[in-house]
Write a structure and sequence with these properties.
By secondary structure, this protein is mainly alpha-helical. Helices cover 59% and strands 5% of the residues. It has a three-stranded antiparallel sheet, with helices on one face. Helix 5 (97-104) packs antiparallel against helix 6 and helix 7 runs antiparallel to helix 9 (156-169).
Length: 196
């Protein structure tokens, strides 16, 4: 995992930092959203902790013709589908799998299926996760993840199996490795969705 160089802020394992490949895209987001993402805990392999600041921000966000709009008036300039894809991912980071699912299941595209597969993997429905990753097909993020993770994520199906095994063993190095890889996956897919 040498290529993922900035995983944790200040040595705190619960607070991941954005890696350099994602930082510039997140710097262009509204400041409240960028701060809420920075405050969120490392996504667990399961549902995980609720990110309160991110949850508060997202529950009032709206998908509009101009993008993803927040009550503060700030807008992320995206297409409607990009905005919905981003909400699916942000709700995963916020620890609300159900809200993420409400967006991803309505997105009949490979990016929507990708978020949908991650959501089912995190809820422990590994067979259903594989179903959704089969719908993803070949995706540019897979090659990026293989490079970023030093080969830990060469294919989503092997990664699902690794997560399943780590969850059954409840902790240890494999669990932490899967969490770190999952964090790289979240960043890569989110950047892909933002940049469209």
């Amino acid at each position: 995992m040498a290529k993922i160089c900035r995983i944790f802020a200040n040595g705190d394992a619960s607070m991941p930092q954005l890696d350099s490949f994602a930082q510039s895209e997140f710097d262009s987001l509204p400041s409240a959203l960028a701060a809420a993402v920075a405050e969120a805990e490392m996504p667990d392999l399961g549902e995980g902790a609720v990110a309160e600041s991110l949850t508060e921000l997202l529950k009032n966000a709206e998908v509009s013709d101009s993008g993803l709009r927040f009550p503060s008036g700030e807008t992320v300039d995206l297409s409607r589908s990009q905005a919905s894809l981003c909400l699916a991912g942000f709700w995963l980071l916020a620890g609300n799998l159900e809200r993420s699912h409400s967006f991803s299941q309505e997105l009949p595209c490979r990016d929507g299926s990708f978020w949908h597969g991650i959501m089912h993997r995190r809820e422990g429905d590994f067979g259903n996760a594989k179903y959704w990753f089969r719908k993803v097909g070949n995706h540019p993020v897979f090659e990026q993840l293989a490079d970023l993770t030093g080969g830990t994520y060469e294919d989503p199906f092997d990664f699902i199996d690794a997560c399943s095994s780590a969850v059954r063993k409840k902790g240890g190095g494999a669990y932490q490795s899967c969490m770190i890889t999952q964090w790289a996956e979240w960043q890569a897919l989110m950047v892909h969705c933002i940049t469209g």
